[in-house]
Amino acid sequence: MTSLQVEKNDDGKAAGPSAETSGEGYQRGLGARQIQMIAIGGAIGTGLFLGAGKAISKAGPSLILAYAIAGLVIFFIMRALGELLMYRPVSGSFAEYAREFIGPFAGFVTGWTYWLFWVVTGITEVTAAATYMTYWWDIPQWLSALVFTIILYGANLISVKLFGEIEFWFSMVKVTAILGMILICAGVLTIGFSDAGDTASVSMLWDQGGFFPKGLGGTLMTLQIVMFAFLAVELVGVTAGESKDPKTVLPKAINTVPWRIAVFYVGALIMILSVVPWTVFSDGVSPFVKAFEQMGLGVGAAIVNFVVLTAALSSCNSGMYSTGRMLRDLALNGQGPKIFTRLSARGIPLIGTTFSAALMMFGVWINYQWPGEAFNYVVSFATISGMWAWIMILCSQLRFRRAVARGELPESSFKAPGAPFTSWFALGFIGLVIVLMGIDSTARNALYCAPLWALILVVSYRVLKARNPHIGERAQAGDKA
Question: Which InterPro entries does the protein's record reference (predicted)?
Fold first, then answer.
C-alpha cells in the first residue's frame, strides 16, 4: 500500500478511498448515456476504418479469427480494470492502481507513458483529420489542423459534460456507419442487389485460397494492427472520477465489450468479406470504401471519409481529455509539476490540458514539415505504449487479488470471471504481440524507442526522488485556478 489513507469497513478490513475523499475535486458531469457511448466509441477508430485494409491483405479472412481472439483478451483486460474501478473509482485509474499495488515508480512510468501515448496519437489524428478535409475542399492542411485543435481544446475547457456530449455524437456517427454497412451487406447477400449481388456468398470466406490464405504466420503478424485497433478501449477507466454513478454505469459499460467486438469487428468483417473478395483489399485503402466501390455504390466513399474524419477527431478529443487528467494525477502524487494540480472553476485541469494541446500543435507543424515518416511509425509506437497501460492494469489486478486473499482489502463488487487465469492469459498474449513486433521490421522501430523512453523516465524519477523523498504520495489538492 502507498501512503494513501484508507478507511476501515465494519469487519476491520481496509477499504480504498472513494473518489470523493481522495482529493480529486472533479465534477461528476458524465452520465450513463455518455459513458456508454464513450465505451463503445473507444473501441472503434481509424484502426478499423483504415488499418483493417492492410490487415486483410496480410491475413485474408483469418483476420476475423484474430479480431475475435484479441477481442476476448481485451474483455479480460477490461474486466480486470472493472474490478479495480469498483474498488476505487478515480480519474487517475490504472496509473493510480499501478502506484498503489506495484509501487510509485510503476505509477510514474504508467502515467507519463499513457500521457505520451495520447499526445502522439492526438498529433497524428488531428493531422489525419486535416488530410481528410482535402477530399471536399482544397484548403491548406495546417489550417484545418489548427482549427480542429483550437475547437477541441476550447470544448475541453468548457466542461466535462460537453466533452462527453461531443464523444457521444462522434460515437453515434461511427456506430451508425458500421451498422449501415452490415445491413447493406446483408441485403446484398439475401436480395442480391448491387454489382456484387451475383457473386456475394458466405463461401467467399474460404473459397479464395482458404480461410488462412497466407498461413498461420500471416495471421499472427497482423496482431499488432489488431491490437492497435482496440487502443483507447481503456479510456472509460479515466472517466471514473467524473462519472455521476460509477458503481452502476462502469460495470454496464464494460460488460458491453463482447457484443461491441462481436458486432463492430467480427460481424462487420464477416459481412464485408462475404460480399467482396479479400484479394481486392490493400494497405492505405479503407475496407469500407473499397466495399462500397465493389458494390457500385460510389457515394459510400464520401460517407466513409466523413466517418473517418469523425473517428480522427474523436481520438484527438479523447487525447485532450485524458492527458490533462493524467498530468494532474501525476502532480497530485508528486510525480509531476505542482502547477498541473490546479483546477478551473468548472473542475477542468486547465494547465495540464493546455500544455498537452500546445505539444499537439507543435506536432502538427512537425507533420507538416515531414509528413511521410511521422505516420510510418506512429502505429507501432502507440501500440507499445498503449499496451503498457494494459500490462499495468493486469498486474495491478493480480496484486489487488493477493491483498484481498491476505485479508488486507475487501473483495471488489465486480469480480473478473476466471481471474487470475484470464489475467495471466492476457499478459501472455500481450507478450506474444511484443515478440511479433520485434520480428516485424516496420514495427521494430517502436521497440527501439522504448529503451530511450525508459531511460528518460528512470533519470527523471531519480531526480524527483532526490528532491522529494515522498514522491508517489498523493497530496490533497483541491486548488482552483
Answer: AA-permease/SLC12A_dom, Amino_acid_permease_CS
Q: Is residue 262 part of a domain?
A: yes
What pLDDT score was predicted for residue 102? 93
For residue 429, being part of any structural domain is answered with yes
* CATH code of residue 422: 1.20.1740.10
Please say if the pLDDT value at position 48 is more than 80: no
The answer to whether residue 17 is domain-embedded is no
pLDDT, mean of residues 195-211:
83
Rounded to an integer, what distance in angstroms lies between the CA atom of residue 197 and that of residue 202? Answer: 12
Query: What is the per-residue pLDDT for 255?
Result: 86
- Give one DSSP letter per residue of 365-422, joined into a string: HHHHHSHHHHHHTHHHHHHHHHHHHHHHHHHHHHHHHHHHHTTSSPPPSSPPTTTTHH
CA distance 367 to 373: 8
Look at the chain and report how many structural domains it folds into: 1
Range of the domain at 351: 33-464
φ, ψ dihedrals at 30, nearest 5°: -100, 120
- DSSP H/E element including 187: helix 160-190
Measure Cα distances from 395 to 368, 388, 427 in Å.
39, 11, 8
Helices (H), 276-337: 287-294, 299-332
Taking the C-alpha atoms of residue 459 and residue 457, their distance in angstroms, rounded to an integer, is: 6
pLDDT value for 457: 92
DSSP three-state, residue 14: strand
Closest among 316, 270, 372 to 52, alpha carbons compared: 270
Q: Please answer whether residues 67 and 47 qualify as being in contact, where contact means their C-beta atoms are separated by less than 8 angstroms.
A: no
Helix axes 63-87, 378-405, angle to 10 degrees: 50
**Inter-axis angle of helices 378-405 and 104-133, to 10 degrees?**
150
Give the C-alpha separation, 104 to 109, whole Å.
9
Residue with cell 485543435: 149
pTM of the model: 0.86
- Average pLDDT of the segment spanning 135-151: 83
The strand pairing partners of 14, in sequence order, are 8
> Is residue 480 included in any domain, yes or no?
no
How far is 317 from 122, CA to CA, in rounded Å? 8
Kindly tell me if the per-residue pLDDT of 241 is higher than 70: no
